Input
Amino acid sequence: MERFVFGADLGGTTVKLGLCREDGTLLEKREIPTRTEHAGEGILPDIAAQVAALCRDCLGDGRELAGIGLGVPGVVMADGFVQPCVNLGGWGGFDAAGELARMCSVPARALNDANAATLGELWLGGGAGAQNMVFVTLGTGVGGGVVVERRLLAGAHGSGGEIGHIKLYGGEGRLCGCGSHGCLERYASATAIAEMASQRLRQDGAPSALRGVEPVTAKDVMDCAKAGDALALDVVESFADDLGRGLAAIACVCDPEVFVLGGGVSKAGEFLLDQVRRAYLRYAFSTTRQARFGLAKLGNDAGILGCAYYALTHLPAGDRF
Amino acid sequence: MERFVFGADLGGTTVKLGLCREDGTLLEKREIPTRTEHAGEGILPDIAAQVAALCRDCLGDGRELAGIGLGVPGVVMADGFVQPCVNLGGWGGFDAAGELARMCSVPARALNDANAATLGELWLGGGAGAQNMVFVTLGTGVGGGVVVERRLLAGAHGSGGEIGHIKLYGGEGRLCGCGSHGCLERYASATAIAEMASQRLRQDGAPSALRGVEPVTAKDVMDCAKAGDALALDVVESFADDLGRGLAAIACVCDPEVFVLGGGVSKAGEFLLDQVRRAYLRYAFSTTRQARFGLAKLGNDAGILGCAYYALTHLPAGDRF
Output
């Protein structure tokens, strides 16, 4: 019998929800606001209500939901315990999937949101067909997920794939939001690209198409670099060099067949891939040099689909289907 | 029926061999010279002869060998192909385990030697009972192995756990034997400790118990640091800081529950663990700070036992036992 699964990708602003077939076809998707007030007490009831509504609208005829995957913006421990989430006003500190399962009377499993996007891209996106993959999100920060033999590397304390906090530099590095210095995401995120360009514009008088743009964004920098602007190219090369060195370090640990780049910066497309691949080869060891580079393909659906895939591949053994 | 497995740990100078029960008890072990002449054509026949001899001496009574694990000092691809091994005069470039299996009429599997030692320590040594572990050998170089949910992370190109070549520094770093600059093993190996101490002794006139020792070894530096020698302590703190930052980067990828330190430098014991743990905590992210640190326990037997364990856990499905 065909199985249906539900993905709920819980973010700081909205929850992205979708009901899909086991081949990944989305029957319907929705987006609702994340209500973080009152310690987020409405979050799970809101999701449960959407689960009920979508199943009522799209299933029926004896077709039932097999499971729910819940992506959360924080650390999920091996036993399902969700650490309090900074971006959700501290929501968490309990077994969120267990609670959601009770509300919906369906098995549910929680996972980290970056890991969910990783699984989505592995299932149906830039990593389709790969056995070993590293997903890298280049956005406000740098996030990631590691896949080994088609399984997520969750880690002993739920921090597998937290690649944005690799210390690329020692104590003299840039201060990071995590309280440490020299983290990869202070050199390789969209935020870092914009900051580096702004700083260069202030510090030297070189002509640049970026001069006068206020505020400068990572997209501006990428666009100008593509057009040959020297200052923008300098910034992109510095970003790519640091990212390439970080990815080469990751490859010395888990040796993936493909790196899939996602997040806002990945909209720079082939130009980004070329820059990062070239920098990677400066630092990559031995056979890890054979790793391929690809772009994320699923955009905002990656999280929903990855949650659904996680549910599908983690159904309890006693599952009736 | 009880199963017996054979471990053969092939090194540049000797092959360490052992026959053991499935609980890891060694019935007998031996060490024979590695004959690298004539492109190492005698290596596999020598091992096959030892397999036959040990089985004849220790088994009998209808007790048969279930499998052989072969550790090699080089990269082993997923299909069993062994890349040519630099330390064996280029021996390799073929399916070594397949060849050994044909010679011995018993299933055989090859794996990288650092991975073999990792599995040995996971099975019966410093990582016993762990699900997720990183083994770090601090010797002439820095080697390692990564275990995820009790399985070796081999990687897509056989380079999983090649942690000695994480580029801790960019282009300005020390030159490594691999041809790149800034590799972890140029800062955190026994070789690096001895070199750093020698350089300090040449460069400044500070008093030190190491002065006049020729040549200075990593053991000398560790012993003097334990005794409070300021120059030696400086060197050890620099070594530990770099190693701690490297291990913190590894934890951002695979988040182990325990780091097991082996190799010659690990003989410094608790003093080493204290230094490395303190440095690790300067750089470790979030819940990866909970990782434990332990010492390798099996010494030279780690390789033999790890090879045997690999054979035991990778017997073909159609295996008669």
Summary: The CA atoms of residues 107 and 316 of chain B lie 7 Å apart. The longest helix of chain B spans residues 230-254. The longest strand of chain B covers residues 14-21. The radius of gyration of chain B is 21 Å.
